[in-house]
Automatic annotation (TrEMBL):
This is Hemoglobin-like flavoprotein. It comes from the Bacteria. It comes from Pseudoroseicyclus aestuarii. The keyword Transport applies. Belongs to the globin family. Keywords: Heme, Iron, Metal-binding, Oxygen transport, Transport.
Amino acid sequence: MTPREIELVQTSFARILPQREEAGVRFYEILFARDPSLQSMFRGDMVSQADKLIGTLAPVVDGLHDLRGILPVAERLAVQHVAYGVKAEHYDLVGEALLDMFEGQLGPAFCVTTRASWRRAYTVIAGAMVRAAYPR
């Protein structure tokens, strides 16, 4: 990723933090609307789950300048999520829901360039996660 792409991702994420609960809940609403079967993977309070999501994204977004440092953590997380029923194809759904959540929460501040930067970051990280969790 270029320094500018990283800056766009980090800046947009910083704008989400003050609304982290609402943004996280909105993410899951979008995700479950796209694939209602995914809702069965989540038990308990979705507000807490939403907070966990944003809390998990924070160090990843913060560490984009050092992908070699954050990818092993993301890979371990992916392997753990296999036990919850996460499949490789879910990563695309999650990525699109994440992008749509950002667009909905940030409006015009989530411009085409910022969306492309997020897509690139997500593709790199999710790709590593899928390869770790589902080796061929």
